[in-house]
Amino acid sequence: MFSLKHRILKTGVIRGKTDIHCHVLPGVDDGSPDLPHSLDLLDYMEHDLGFSDVWLTPHVMQGSGNTAARLQEPFSTLSSRYEGAMRLHLSSEYMLDEGFDERLETDVLPLGERHLLVETSYMNGPNDLYDLLLRVWHKGLVPLVAHPERYMYMEEHDYQDLKAHGYEFQLNLLSLSGYYGTRPRLVSERLLEAGLYDNVGTDLHHLDRFEDYLWDLKLTRRQIDAIELLFDNNTHL
Questions:
Q1: How far is the C-alpha of 75 from the C-alpha of 86, rounded, in Å?
Q2: Can you tell me the distance from the alpha carbon of 81 to that of 131, in angstroms, rounded to the nearest whole number?
Q3: Beta pairing partners, 171
C-alpha cells in the first residue's frame, strides 16, 4: 500500500530538540579535526537543524587517550568560542573493550542524569557483552546502546534479549536514509516499527554526505511521529 513520505527537515520535528550523540568536539577523535570545523558544525546544528541542546560525545576507547579530564579543555575552549544559543553538554561514547572496566570505575562522563552511551565493534561484539552492561547497571547507570542497527553480528533475538534485560537503544537518524548501507537501513526501520528504540541522535562527524543525506531523508508520517517521541525522550535523560 502506498504511504506518503515527508522530507523530515521540512516537518520541523527536529527544531527545539536535543541531540544526544555527535562528534563535534575538536581534535579528539574521528569527528571534527579543529575548532573552526567544530564551530561550522555547531552553526549547522543550530541554524539548519534547529537544535536547542547538544551533547558532545567523543569516542573513548583503548588507545584514544581520551579521559574526562582531557576532554574538559577542548570542551571549555569550544564553549567559550561558540556564540550561538544552543546549550552544550559534555559526555562520551564508550567502547566496550578491554579497557572499559577500568574506565567505568574511575573516569566516565554520564549522558544526562543516569545514562551511559556505549558501543561495540561493528563486526564482533565482546564475548562478555552482558557482563559489561551489567557492570554499568551496578554503577547506577543505564546502558544506552548506540546505533544497534549498525552491528552486523546482531540478529533479531539479540535485540529482543537486550531489551528484555532493560538496556536501551539509540537510533542514528541517518541509518533510516541508507547513509550506512542497506542492512542498517532495513534493521533501523524494523526496530523503529517495533518500538525498540528509546532515543535518537545524529552521530554527526562532518558535513560531507551527511548534509545531503539528511536533506533527502523522507519518512512516513508514522515514522516521523515515532522519531518525535524519541527526540522528546532525549530531553529527559
A1: 14
A2: 41
A3: 200
Q: What is the pLDDT of residues 206-225, one digit of tens each?
A: 999 999 999 999 999 999 99
Three-state SS string across 34-101, please? Answer: CHHHHHHHHHHHHHHHCCCEEEECCEECCCCCCCHHHHHHHHHHHHHHCCCCCEEEECCEEECCCCHH
Contact between residue 144 and residue 108 where contact means Cβ atoms under 8 Å apart = no
CA–CA distance, 21 with 56 (Å, rounded to integer)? 6
Q: Specify burial of residue 171 (Cβ count, 10 A radius: 0-12, 13-18, 19+).
A: buried
pLDDT of residue 107: 87
Mean pLDDT of the chain: 97
* Residue 39 near residue 75, CB atoms below 8 Å: no
Task: Tell me the C-alpha distance between 226 and 96, whole Å.
Answer: 28
- 5, β-bridge pairs: 220
d(CA 178, CA 237): 27
CA 218 and chain centroid, separation? 20
Residue 104: the pLDDT is 96
Distances (CA, A) of 117 to 9, 22, 94, 127, 199: 26, 11, 6, 19, 11
The answer to whether the beta carbons of residues 56 and 22 sit under 8 Å apart is: yes
Conformational region of residue 160, where left means phi above 0, alpha means psi within -120 to 50, and beta covers everything else: alpha
